[in-house]
């Protein structure tokens, strides 16, 4: 477990009042003037002036109660006077008397009380400063930026200490007060921890009370308040919230971190859940800010100076993204600050345009929207200020017209943009403009028109395209020189989790379920590992929606979705075992050797090494960044190398159909590598990449690896190293759920000679690694295998067991098809073992011997219809077959 601690802070307390701020008579301290606690850090000075005494806490509680009581009284008075006026009106009207006879003074008195009530309600809350504004105040009191909820928690913590008669207010008192907040309880529910458990942990940390009536607040506790402020400051929050105090409180309590870890809550998880809460708070703050800006920012496309010109044609084929940002219609943009900064800096440096290059689903348009939001907030250089970011719809532009007509449309729109002077143009999928000019003879060069006008007028442009389209259509075209490329990579898991946190609320509302943090973390992790067809975060967002629907259908509404729920959905979707190991599967994993030996005779060292690797992988003890296991099986032909691979496919993956097999003797030339990964700059993938992409949970068998070309071997070096391979169209294919087994006859003669000489298994293995295999493979390549497994030549005893297995397989087939029983006498079995034994070719002659002697004889009597259901076929010495 890795714990976290708050950085050391040196807090200054007034020695006269000991940080209280008042004297014994509850008057302001004459020495510190109420500024009883202070901190100096690298950014300046901070203070705490709020009085934490029984009298101070009680006074604030009473004042809050009195304010609420006053407001209620004024509202009741207003309702009374207005109600009385309404009653008089009703009475006069029912008696058909003139309305003028009613004294209007009651109405005006009621209206005055109502206005006063509204005024009180507006002034009920105190003025809350932004975190960024505190340090510039004359008295930089951190309480100025704290929410009312947080200040209430601090007072409640003091009251708890006083009620318990504790000598000092401690961090555990803060935890106890925080645990009563519904928002904090929801956070721990997301972490799959019952809120009562947190209350019990806090009480355990406090222990027994000291019996003191007036608890004091020490430096350690005051330091937490400053830590909470600095935490909010570093996170660029508007206010200091209860979640900030929770985070720094847990960091201050090492024993609490250990207890939480035992409940499955690490500090990383807690940090991410706090970030989840912050994201939602920032969304609300952002919406409020944008609505305020919308009141002063033009919505008609005109700039503030009223110098811009309307763009009616452009408006037909575009969307104003800045306008959408003004009214809060864009979602939160998380995890892409670096890319947004890069785009903004390009324009600040004088670049004419930025080209965002990334696969569909990585979030290119989210970056464009992030730029639009910064433009609305005016957190951009002068070249982007007081401008509109307008996204051009290429599909609408090209719809129903020839390339020539589309070019004329574009030319007219660009003329409007140029005249307006306040537009930044966004062009999604700009490669479609290059494709559009392939319109035959006389077609207008649409891309050329765009380049010419933009270079002449200096219109800022943000365009997007995919890596494949960039290579095929944009690179080398007239558009390439217009833009500075910005590569948009798929998000990492941590970034994707934050994206899911911003979008999960809508999914939860639609489906009526709730995601735990572990479930979101699992969704992001599974999407990265097992859903390779689309990049992060799109794959994770789609999976999150799919999990929500599946869990609702299975368990009903109001269900808290766990990581195991997400794992079950992924397991069904991909046929990859990602769920927790059940008792039945655990028993199966412990008996792997026994199950393998039902099909493979001997080769104990090979079976044991493979079984251990499979158990490690299923228990998730592997790195997860390489294949499940990489094995090199070496030995003479016919000793069971391929048979063990088939056995693994059946036992671990569920069937021999889960084995992808390549005969490496077909890949002996350098250009054969393209058969495996595809030809560059062409559509379609290669045989290897397509096979693994379509069946990611499988066994990859490379037969006779020593015959492959060196470049092909280097390809598999990358697979064993990184667990991934990029095909010819730029798609990354994941190999981390593959068991890679390569077979080789290299060193077969050496193995046979050493076995005859009685050498130990380890000696033979060492000789292969240091000498024999180096004639075929580089040491670097051999070292990438998790194990080089040596298969011994067949002995006479082993071949007898092989004969029994093959006869057993034949008997099972006869029973299934004809309902008859096949038995082979011991004498006949001995004859078959002699006929099928060849030290040079292993078990392969045995298969031929059974086919020639047993299967041929039985086929004749079956065709003669001498065998019925329940019959017993006996094969005896000399090839005699009897039916009973």
Total number of helical segments? 37
Work out the count of structural domains: 5
Task: State the name of the first-level CATH class of the largest domain.
Answer: Alpha Beta
Please tell me how large the radius of gyration is: 38 Å
Helical proportion?
40-55%
Number of strands: 23
Average pLDDT rating: 85
Class inferred from helices and paired strands: alpha/beta
- CATH homologous superfamily identity of the largest domain: P-loop containing nucleotide triphosphate hydrolases
Order of strands side by side in the largest beta sheet? 6-8-9-10-7-11
Pfam family, one: AAA_2
GO biological process, one term: cellular response to heat
InterPro entries: AAA+_ATPase (IPR003593), ATPase_AAA_core (IPR003959), Clp_ATPase_C (IPR019489), Clp_N_dom_sf (IPR036628), ClpA/B (IPR001270), ClpA/ClpB_AAA_lid (IPR041546), ClpA_ClpB (IPR050130), P-loop_NTPase (IPR027417)
GO cellular component, one term: cytoplasm
């Amino acid at each position: 477990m890795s714990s976290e601690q708050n950085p050391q802070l040196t807090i200054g307390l007034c020695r006269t009042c000991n940080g209280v701020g008042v004297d014994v008579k509850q008057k302001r301290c004459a020495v510190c003037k109420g500024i009883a606690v202070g901190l100096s850090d690298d950014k300046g000075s901070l203070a705490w002036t709020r009085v934490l005494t029984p009298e101070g806490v009680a006074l604030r509680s009473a004042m809050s109660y009195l304010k609420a009581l006053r407001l209620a009284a004024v509202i009741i008075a207003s309702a009374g006077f207005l109600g009385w006026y309404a009653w008089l009106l009703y009475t006069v009207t029912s008696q058909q008397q003139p309305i003028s006879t009613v004294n209007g003074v009651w109405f005006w008195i009621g209206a005055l009380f109502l206005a006063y009530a509204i005024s009180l309600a507006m002034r009920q809350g105190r003025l809350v400063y932004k975190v960024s504004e505190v340090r510039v105040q004359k008295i930089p009191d951190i309480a100025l930026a704290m929410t009312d909820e947080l200040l209430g928690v601090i007072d409640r913590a003091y009251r708890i200490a006083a009620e318990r008669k504790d000598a000092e207010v401690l961090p555990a008192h803060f935890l106890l007060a925080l645990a009563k907040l519904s928002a904090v309880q929801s956070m721990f529910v997301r972490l799959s921890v019952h809120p009562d458990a947190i209350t019990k942990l806090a009480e355990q940390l406090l222990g027994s009370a000291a019996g003191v009536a007036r608890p004091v607040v020490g430096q350690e506790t005051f330091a937490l308040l400053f830590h909470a402020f600095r935490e909010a400051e570093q996170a660029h929050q508007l206010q200091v919230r209860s979640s900030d105090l929770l985070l720094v409180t847990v960091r201050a309590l090492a024993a609490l971190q250990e207890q939480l870890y035992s409940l499955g809550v690490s500090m990383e998880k807690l940090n991410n859940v706090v970030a989840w809460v912050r994201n939602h708070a920032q969304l609300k703050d952002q919406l409020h800010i944008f609505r305020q800006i919308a009141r002063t920012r033009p919505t008609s496309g005109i700039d503030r100076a009223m110098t811009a010109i309307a763009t009616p044609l452009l408006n037909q084929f575009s969307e104003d993204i800045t306008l959408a940002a003004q009214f809060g219609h864009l979602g939160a943009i998380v995890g892409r600050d670096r890319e947004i900064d890069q785009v903004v800096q390009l324009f600040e440096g004088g670049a004419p345009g930025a080209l965002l290059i990334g696969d569909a689903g990585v979030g290119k348009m989210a970056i464009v929207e992030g730029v639009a939001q910064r433009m609305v907030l005016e957190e951009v250089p002068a070249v982007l200020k007081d401008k509109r970011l307008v996204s051009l719809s290429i599909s609408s532009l090209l719809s129903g017209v020839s390339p020539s007509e589309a070019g004329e449309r574009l030319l007219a729109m660009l003329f409007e943009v140029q005249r307006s002077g306040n537009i930044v143009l966004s062009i999604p999928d700009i490669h479609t403009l290059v494709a559009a000019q392939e319109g035959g003879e006389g077609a207008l060069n649409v891309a050329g028109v765009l380049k010419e006008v933009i270079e002449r007028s200096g219109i800022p442009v943000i365009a997007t395209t995919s890596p494949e389209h960039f290579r095929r259509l944009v690179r080398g075209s007239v558009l390439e020189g217009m833009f500075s490329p910005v590569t948009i990579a798929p998000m990492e898991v941590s970034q994707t989790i934050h994206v899911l946190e911003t979008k999960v609320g809508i999914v939860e509302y639609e489906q009526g379920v709730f995601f735990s943090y572990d479930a979101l973390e699992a969704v992001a992790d599974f999407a990265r590992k097992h859903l390779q067809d689309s990049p992060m975060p799109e794959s994770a967002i789609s999976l999150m929606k799919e999990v929500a629907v599946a869990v609702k259908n299975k368990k009903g509404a109001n269900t808290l979705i766990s990581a195991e729920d997400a794992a079950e959905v992924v397991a069904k979707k991909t046929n990859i075992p990602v769920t927790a190991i059940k008792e039945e599967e655990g028993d199966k994993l412990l008996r792997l050797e026994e199950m393998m030996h039902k099909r493979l005779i001997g080769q104990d060292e090979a079976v044991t090494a493979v079984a251990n690797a499979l158990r490690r992988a299923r228990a998730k003890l592997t790195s997860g960044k390489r294949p499940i296991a990489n094995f090199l099986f070496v030995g003479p032909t016919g000793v069971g190398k391929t048979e063990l691979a088939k056995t693994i496919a059946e036992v671990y993956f569920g069937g021999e159909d889960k084995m992808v097999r390549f005969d490496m003797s077909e890949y002996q030339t350098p250009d054969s590598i393209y058969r495996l990964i595809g030809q560059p700059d062409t559509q379609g993938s290669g045989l290897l990449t397509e096979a693994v992409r379509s069946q990611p949970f499988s066994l990859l068998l490379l037969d006779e690896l020593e015959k492959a070309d060196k470049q092909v071997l280097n390809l598999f070096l990358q697979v064993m190293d990184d667990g991934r391979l990029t095909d010819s169209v730029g798609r990354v294919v994941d190999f981390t759920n593959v068991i890679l087994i390569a077979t080789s006859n290299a060193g077969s003669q050496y193995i046979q000679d050493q076995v005859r000489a009685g050498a130990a298994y380890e000696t033979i293995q060492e000789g292969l690694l240091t000498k024999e295999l180096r004639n075929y493979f580089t040491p670097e390549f051999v070292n990438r295998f998790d194990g080089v497994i040596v298969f011994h030549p067949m002995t006479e005893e082993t071949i007898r067991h092989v004969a029994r297995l093959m006869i057993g397989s034949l008997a099972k087939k006869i029973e299934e098809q004809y309902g008859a029983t096949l038995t082979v006498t011991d004498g006949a079995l001995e004859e078959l073992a002699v006929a099928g034994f060849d030290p040079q070719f292993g078990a392969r002659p045995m298969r031929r011997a059974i086919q020639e002697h047993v299967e041929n004889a039985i086929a004749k009597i079956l065709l003669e219809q001498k065998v019925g259901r329940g019959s017993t076929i006996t094969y005896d010495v000399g090839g005699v077959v009897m039916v009973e």
